[in-house]
Amino acid sequence: LNRIYIKLIGKIGSSGRHEIKTLTGLWAGSVSFLVSDSGFVLALGLVDDDWFCSKIIVTTPEGVSMLFPCHRWMNSNKRLSLRDAVGSSKSHVLCMHVSYRWGIYAEGLPHIVNAESPTVLPPEVRFSFTKKKEFLFTLVIALFNIFMPVLTEYVEKNWMRDDFFGYQFLNGLNPTMIKRCSELPENFPVTNDMVKSSLPEKSTLEMEIELKRGRNIFLCDYKRLNGLQGNEINKKKQYLSAPLCLLFSTPENKLTPIAIQNISDPSRNPIFLPSENEKDWLLAKIFVRGAEFNEHELNFHLLRTHLLGEVFTMAVMRNLPSCHPLFKAVALRNHTVSLR
Where are the membrane-spanning stretches (predicted)? Predict the structure, then answer.
């Protein structure tokens, strides 16, 4: 059972240490009353379990209520000193500067919190017991859905089809990578003769690109991956491709690939077409899917989700008082640091 001690420190003196007691114990939402002189600083101590304190309200003998925002975790190894909501937050900010130190993830990327593992993170940004259980439950549901016979059988039968390839693009990780093509890049020299078998009769690539045909040509360019070096996995060097993929929206409103170049430099790699060797075309599509995964993980997931989010989390936790609305939102709902 949690035992929490409180001490009020004011201009005149200190109230001494008092234990907050309730008949049913201190659970979530507990309220306890303690009569003492008014103070401007609260000192809190805790024994036993971790306990999240949202706020403390002290009522003076004159009936004036004083709010002491907390929104932090307490444990037996951590003693908190809180100032009232209208007081100075300098001591809180200095304390947070010690708990949240900047670290370097990699050269050229946003800085991160300096922590070796999630277990040494400040408790405000660690996963709670409930959140961990939610992750396990979600994992079980996801595995069940993945191995549903109906779903796996359909994918197994259709994954090599061009229209299913386009379907995965539109319903996958990064549909925003698909850009309407108004002009072909210089390093992607696709000609009309190359793709005419994939277009409607009497139509040309130029006509499909132009407005009068509805602009049915789309482009995915993974140029950000160009030049990146892959890691070694099981002592085998890995390689990243930076493909360009040209897509066509058919009259049946299906998105299909019509040309793929797996390297940005056309002199080093041919343009693969669905009208040519079936296995070469399938391999080219697999390279595009691999690039799609790498683009998502490196750019949209790691950089834009975790690293950028962590910068704002660190800035809020280090510089804003606990009574600030942004601090409360981050402390209660932000798991960016733990996830990364």
Answer: 135-152
